[in-house]
Amino acid sequence: MAVRSDIEIARDAKKRPIQEIGAKLGIESQHLLPYGHDKAKIAADYIASLANRKDGKLILVTAINPTPAGEGKTTTTVGLGDGLNHIGKKAAICLREPSLGPCFGVKGGAAGGGYSQVVPMEDINLHFTGDFHAITAAHNLLSAMIDNHIYWGNALNIDTRRVVWRRVMDMNDRALREIVCSLGGVANGYPREAGFDITVASEVMAILCLAKDLADLEKRLGDIIVAYRRDKTPVYARDIKADGAMTVLLAQAMLPNLVQTLENNPAFIHGGPFANIAHGCNSVVATQTALKLADYVVTEAGFGADLGAEKFFDIKCRKAGLKPAAAVIVATVRALKMNGGVKKEDLGKENVEAVKKGCANLGRHIENVKSFGVPAVVGINHFISDTDAEIQAVMQYVTAQGSEAFLCKHWAEGSKGISAMAKRVAEIADSNVANYAPIYPDNMGLFQKVETIAKKIYRAGEVTADKSVRDQLKTWEDMGYGHLPICIAKTQYSFTTDPNARGAPTGFTLPVREVRLSAGAGFIVAICGEIMTMPGLPKVPSSEHIKFNTAGQIEGLF
Which domains does the chain have, with CATH numbers? Predict the structure, then answer.
């Protein structure tokens, strides 16, 4: 029997009106701002009214380093949320919104898969409620106002060689990484070098995901450093008088989005910073709202635990005062075999030794998550090609690491295929054994924070950086930004900066190429290796296969 595609399964979903989904969490219809029949935003005044309620238990879903074989972190997040509801718990999930760049590039969407999806899948993976467009518009409004200020006399004495605010768009376009703008003569302004990042790398995206309300949003937007003067003093977005208008553009986007799973359970999808170039977590507002409304909240952090989980713990939880109760690390037999040296075309053949060898990557992530004081179990996302011997090898390895592994069949079976892990995760969360703490203190030096992440989480032997990078970090410390956490931008495919270095390498060098101050978001970005903040499209992008069929239905999204 042919396996149905994700989009075919999503198309047949028996969706309930979004008011019914809100009612499951006790949200009355007047507090929902509907976008059609199957999605809605939650009103700000209602969110504010929940402040004194007790929080539910927060459960993080993370993963091993991603491979072309697939891991299924979002699918497992959705499945676990459904699984908790299936065993009688009141649970909700919190996800990031997908970016158009990967949807039309190589990664695909981010709405789960099989029978563990959030719907409406097409809307979520495309324009959704317009949040990303609002973020793009607010970011580029600031860009336009900077150049406009310079054009009309530059009263702030901005050094046009030191404008650090780039432009953004929500698409992969390598041709825009480095540009020259304002060409064409006097009427078009003063020519200068500039460039584009992808919207999910924008500091505005990070700010929206970390701000607690509109007032906090406006303050953070005003704190953005956009340029420096010749004396190297900073120019802020509030100096350009852009913070108010940017907040107006983002007011609707600040409201969390409510949708549903295929099993009609509530899902919050809000914000979408990438974990390889930003902090990789859904919005604080969505997570805190869900915690006030549900007894268990399952959320994911982007890519492997070396990126997403580390930033979830060291940036999001630190800044928002969140205390995770448990974690799930997702792995697949196929991905472990790739980490053990098997080529993608050979993954269908049993290879227990390769599985055992590849488990080193999983073991590193188990150690790392536990180092934050959070108990972790392993979810083995099942593929039909997995053999009993391969699954048993993973189970035995995880047991030897002092953890537990569960074979999860939610992709094919929905909630009942993950109910065993759901029961155990709920038990761990309810036992209050978690003792979460970040791995470095606020008052540690900025470069020492980079070294701490590199050595404790990645197992690097050393961190290298040009004198200009070290001097920049020291300057920011002198300016009062030394307390900020670090957000490392590097490849998601490896603990190193080499995307081909699979497994669990040690003793390597982590090169820091550039550092950027996100003063509004409240972190320092350390760009390592060859990672790009504006991705390119692959040789054969997914967009070549996305189209309407003869029935007027979208094909090619996944």
Answer: 6-128+255-431 (3.40.50.300), 132-250 (3.30.1510.10), 446-528 (3.10.410.10)
